[in-house]
Amino acid sequence: MRRILLPVLLFTLAGSPPSSGASAQITILDRGEFEVAVNGRGVGTETFSIRQVGTGSEVRVIAAGQIRAALPDGANTMDMLMELTGAGWMPSAYQNKVGGEGAREIGFELRGARFESRVTSDIGEQVKEYRAAPGTRILERGAAHHFHFLVPPADPGPLSIPVIVPRDGFQAEAQVTLAGNAELRIGGEVMPARHYRVRAGELRWEAWHDAEGRVLRVVESSTGYSAVRLTRPGS
Question: Is the pTM of this model over 0.85?
Answer without folding.
Answer: yes
